[in-house]
């Protein structure tokens, strides 16, 4: 079994639910194939956007099997997060058994603690399998900041740590990591509204969210940015940015699922304690979506 490289567009996929709250595996499989058909390079299930924290262990395992089967030869790298290190290690091992070819390693849920505790957690997960791992740094969401020196030290000790998903919101972090590790790690943009800036700083790929509704535009934007087609990238980015900014607020899961519903590919059903967005936030989001759809024909795809 080949492993994977973290590069290109890797969608962090949403988890579709049926009306009764169960996972809609039929849709998940179709969704994976749709994204890969649009040029995405692999699939990341069970992340924050996938509502991983609300899924029980057996549901996660079933989703992994569905995604791996649907992805065919494309790599699957699930988000690995849990309340305890023991649970996270168990999920990592099951992911390998299910045919996943990489892992996205997150801090533990709930407990923030000291950086030495976060290090013990992610080290245990990364060492649990030989699969290539991408460390996920998102201090606004998880309260743990994996700094560039921390990442460089970890990379020196863990050969299968091969990538970082950088979601601090500071494009200078990519420059700082590269200054310490060079090409030792592949750097991925993790916030939708900083992809062009991240690529300019040295990122080689994008763990994307709005790709769940706009895969062709997502792939094309990254291709423009990587190829240095500045004018083409700027034009597409200008159109896309109001949508991409929906990925940067606490209600990003509900908002991205609302976008999927509006484009006819998915529903806005979420799992409690989340509820679909309502009131002014909903109206503002719908206005953004409608404006983008109205102007979509003017964007070269």
Task: Write structural notes for this entry.
The protein has 301 residues and is of the alpha/beta class. It has a single domain, classed as TIM Barrel. Helix content is 47%, strand content 9%. The chain contains twelve helices and seven strands. It has a seven-stranded parallel sheet with strand order 1-7-6-5-4-3-2. Helix 3 links the parallel strand 2 and strand 3. Helix 10 runs antiparallel to helix 12 and helix 11 crosses helix 12. The protein is globular and about 50 Å long.
Supply the number of helical segments.
Answer: 12
What CATH first level would be assigned? Alpha Beta
| Unreliable runs | none
Question: Can you name the CATH architecture?
Answer: Alpha-Beta Barrel
Report the principal-axis shape: globular
Question: Which bin fits the share of residues in helices?
Answer: 40-55%
Strand content: 5-15%
How many strands? Answer: 7
Tell me, rounded to a whole number, the average pLDDT: 96
String of helices and strands: EHHEHEHEHHEHEHEHHHH
Count up the domains.
1
CATH topology: TIM Barrel
Could you tell me the radius of gyration in angstroms? 18 Å
- Walk across the major sheet and give the strand order: 1-7-6-5-4-3-2
Which class of secondary structure composition applies to the elements? alpha/beta
Per CATH, the superfamily is Aldolase class I
């Amino acid at each position: 079994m080949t492993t994977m490289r973290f590069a290109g567009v890797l969608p962090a996929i949403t988890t579709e639910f049926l009306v009764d709250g169960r996972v809609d595996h039929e849709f998940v499989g179709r969704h994976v194939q749709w994204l890969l058909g649009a040029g995405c390079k692999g699939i990341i299930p069970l992340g924050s956007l996938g509502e991983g924290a609300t899924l029980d262990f057996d549901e996660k395992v079933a989703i992994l099997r569905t995604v791996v089967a649907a992805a065919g030869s494309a790599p699957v790298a699930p988000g690995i997060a849990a309340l305890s290190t023991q649970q996270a290690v168990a999920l990592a091992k099951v992911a390998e058994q299910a045919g996943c070819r990489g892992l996205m390693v997150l801090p533990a849920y709930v407990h923030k603690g000291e950086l030495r505790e976060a290090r013990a957690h992610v080290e245990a997960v990364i060492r649990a399998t030989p699969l290539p791992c991408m460390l996920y740094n998102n201090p606004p969401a998880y309260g743990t900041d994996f700094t560039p020196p921390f990442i460089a030290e970890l990379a020196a000790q863990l050969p299968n740590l091969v990538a970082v998903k950088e979601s601090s919101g500071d494009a200078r972090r990519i420059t700082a990591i590269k200054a310490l590790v060079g090409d030792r790690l592949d750097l991925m943009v993790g916030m939708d509204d900083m992809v062009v800036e991240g690529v300019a700083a040295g990122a080689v790929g994008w763990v994307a969210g709005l790709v769940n509704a706009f895969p062709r535009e997502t792939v094309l934007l990254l291709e423009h940015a990587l190829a240095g087609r500045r004018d083409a990238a700027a034009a597409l980015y200008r159109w896309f940015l109001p949508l991409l900014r929906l990925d940067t607020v606490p209600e990003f899961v509900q908002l991205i699922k609302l976008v999927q519903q509006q484009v006819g590919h998915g529903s806005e059903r979420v799992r409690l304690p989340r509820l679909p967005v309502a009131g002014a936030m909903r109206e503002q989001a719908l206005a953004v979506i409608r404006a983008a759809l109205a102007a979509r024909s003017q964007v070269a795809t």
